[in-house]
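Hey team,

Filing this mostly as a record. A colleague (T.K.) asked me to run one chain through the structure pipeline before their review meeting, and I want the input and output archived in the tracker in case anyone asks later how it was produced. No errors, nothing strange. Just documentation.

Input sequence:
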Amino acid sequence: MRVRKIKKLGLFEKPTRIEFLENLSPHLGGPNIYMKRDDLIGEALGGNKVRKLEYLLADALSKNADVIITTGGPQSNHCRITAGICAKIGLKCVLVIGGAGKYEYEGNLMLDRIFGAEVIFSGTRDFDAIPAIMEKTAEEFRKKGQRPYIIPLGGANGIGALGYLEAYLEIQKQMKAAKIQFSSITIANGSGGTQAGLETGKLISGGDADIIGISVLFKKAKIAGIVFKDIYETLGVLGISGKKPGGINVFDEYIGKGYAIPTPLTLEAIKLMGRKEGIVLDPVYTGKAFGGLMDLIGKKKFSKKDNVLFIHTGGYPGMVNMRAEHVSAIVK
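Output structure:
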């Protein structure tokens, strides 16, 4: 297959390691659970967005951009990492923060400012309305003679998804080296780009591990549509035609009361992972996603002989989202 070569920045050493959860696997009484530690990617406190930004910021630099504009919630990992990497490579970063109300500069929002980002509060929780606000902001910079580059929510588009297409191929190499086969790969799905990248990697490489997305933001119909769109965009970026994705496997039963609001299952997952493996999950993404995986294990969705992979996508500063009652449920 002929694939167009795409420029990227080299921001961290690959591959990130995969480790067996030797205590939690027997405790849950299900399959053998492995974890890919993308939380250990170092840039700006790390996480999955670094993989996407390797491609997105390379594209921005190739277009001579001098201002990066992006969006996320008040405690967005994507915004924090974008701000940090922009500081490193010398680009101005403007964050159009989704939300209505006043926010304390703590957690990721504090780190955004430490990294020098300009923070604009959009005044709306409707992320469908924010692209227009970002475009208006970009136009203001153009009038001043600057060259803005807009990155969508979560870095989720055909260019950003290349980061997890590459991660899928990385996982395949690790499986071959370790002589192990994963029956499934589970991830938290916020804005769709991580799952789209994995799905595209599976599509073009002929892999057979099921990709399981645990939605933390959108209902299944909406996020599946976003994932499909990003897959086709990614294929277009690579110059690949004639490939058609199959079904998208997304569970939306674990969103609870909404984005960034942990459920009892989320809190149980955080507590178990900490006490059994000494690994920290966050309450917004990985805690919800691993809680969903725990529930699927309890419902016998996997056999005891299955090897399943969970990708830890980072998000430690999101712990600031935890209210007193959430903390109490974990520490008791």
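Quick notes for T.K.: The beta strands are 18-20, 32-37, 67-72, 92-97, 118-121, 148-150, 184-189, 210-215, 250-251, 307-312. The two ends are 55 Å apart (CA to CA).
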